[in-house]
From TrEMBL:
<dbReference type="InterPro" id="IPR023286">
    <property type="entry name" value="ABATE_dom_sf"/>
</dbReference>
<dbReference type="InterPro" id="IPR021005">
    <property type="entry name" value="Znf_CGNR"/>
</dbReference>
<protein>
    <submittedName>
        <fullName>DUF1470 family protein/CGNR zinc finger</fullName>
    </submittedName>
</protein>
<dbReference type="Pfam" id="PF11706">
    <property type="entry name" value="zf-CGNR"/>
</dbReference>
<feature type="domain" description="Zinc finger CGNR">
    <location>
        <begin position="117"/>
        <end position="158"/>
    </location>
</feature>
<dbReference type="InterPro" id="IPR010852">
    <property type="entry name" value="ABATE"/>
</dbReference>
Amino acid sequence: MAAELVNLGPNATPAELDNLLIRIDYRPRRTPNARQTRALLEWAGRLRPVFGETDLDRQVDLVNALLADSAARPYISRHDGRKPHLHYADERRPVDERVFGYTSAGLATAVCQDGRRLGSCARAGCRIVYVDTSRNGRRRYCTTRCANRVHVADHRSRTSVPPQATEAAD
């Protein structure tokens, strides 16, 4: 959820945010209002640096700050016919507070398992973040498309003849 929230971008609407929460099966009780949307998009701005941080100590500090500010208090919940699952904030709290707890706890879990699995696309100009679920954990790009663009550009720069060399040969 943290990566999806960051990738929504800073100008997402309440409806776009609601669609994201529904798509990932978070089941908000109601569509986030304008204040909650602003709060969640600001929170997403705080989540982003965790994905790009390569120094584990700094990454841990970033996540610890998120955990402290979210006041995550895990407990097991059963509702809506679902199996027991963890909640990180009281389910009666506003959606923004619940998402703060959920995403900070999720990032904490990811960092503790292997913080190198949180990444930011290496293609210049791409701002997509991701959780690397590949077998070897060496993902550098958000999609194959971004990787291909970089590799094609690198190939073209190595194989093309500079304009000055062509004019000199004439």
